[in-house]
Amino acid sequence: MTETAERLAAVQARIRAAEAQYRRAAGSVTLLAVSKTKPVEAIRDAMAAGQSAFGENYVQEARDKQDALGADTTAEWHFIGPLQSNKTKLVAPHFDWVHSVEREKIARRLSEQRPDGLPPLNVCLQVNVSGEDSKSGVAPDHVPALADAVAALPRLRLRGLMCIPAPAEGFDAQRAPFRALRELLESLQRSGLELDTLSMGMSGDLEAAVAEGSTMVRVGTDIFGPRDYPATT
Fold it and tell me: Which residues form the Alanine racemase N-terminal domain (predicted)?
């Protein structure tokens, strides 16, 4: 077993244990392996160990990896980084998910540039739950209007919400922003939107996220180790 496979198995065990502890249905939390800045060989190792969903932050780096892996790969590609207008043309046809939609303009470009022959692009709205000036994401108060606008766009399927909260000390403090995101999702569901995804939780706080209803945790370091080469845009 490769080191990547061993790390992957350990993270999966953490997720299953958290599901059991917090009375979540077994298998209800998906693992997204964040492979940004990692070489293609690491992705191949993870795929050989059964991992299929991979998250990337940098468009050109991701496209290079996709080309290296070839068209026959069964990988599911998730774009999770900040998305600029000039990058949507590359993201729309080459990814299965975008987790970081925070503006209607970006959503409209993704919708217009998604090829007709592909299924709708799954999208999440990134919410700045901690109110940090340095963080991307739409303010919670603005989420309902943006959600309605995005849900109406063709070629997109609005799936839910994503957040990257400020680091917090202690389990209860970690849970608080995840609880806020879950409650926001529930309010959108009550308004009639059919949403099923809470993309929240990373290496250091995935148990707190699972406790508050995460359906997808994004883990990089605990699977692939620390960043080991410069990122590209």
Answer: 9-227
- The set of residues, in sequence order, having a beta carbon less than 8 Å from that of 21 and lying 6+ positions away, is 207, 211
Cα gap 66→133, rounded to integer Å: 33
- Rounded to an integer, the average pLDDT of 171-182 is 98
- Contacts of residue 19, defined as CB under 8 A and 6 or more positions apart, other chains included, come to 25, 26, 27, 28, 29, 210
Give the separation between CA 159 and CA 194, rounded to whole angstroms.
Answer: 8
Write phi, then psi, for 94 (nearest 5 degrees): -115, 0
- Only one residue has tokens 């540039």, namely 113
pLDDT on residue 230: 47
Structure tokens at 20: 């059991």
pLDDT score of 22 more than 60: yes
What pLDDT was estimated at residue 130? 87
Query: Between the CA of residue 112 and those of 106, 145, 153, 176, what are the distances in Å?
Result: 10, 20, 9, 36
Domain boundaries, given as residue ranges, for the chain: 3-224
Write the DSSP assignment of 146-184 as a string of letters.
Answer: HHHHHHTSTTEEEEEEE--PPP-SSHHHHHHHHHHHHHH
**Superfamily for the 3-224 domain:** Alanine racemase (3.20.20.10)
Backbone angles phi, psi at 141, to 5 degrees: -65, -25
Report the half-sphere exposure of 45 (CA within 13 A, side-chain side).
17
How are the residues of the chain apportioned to helix, strand and coil, as percentages rounded to the nearest 5? 45, 15, 40
Question: Would the pLDDT of 123 be above 50?
Answer: yes
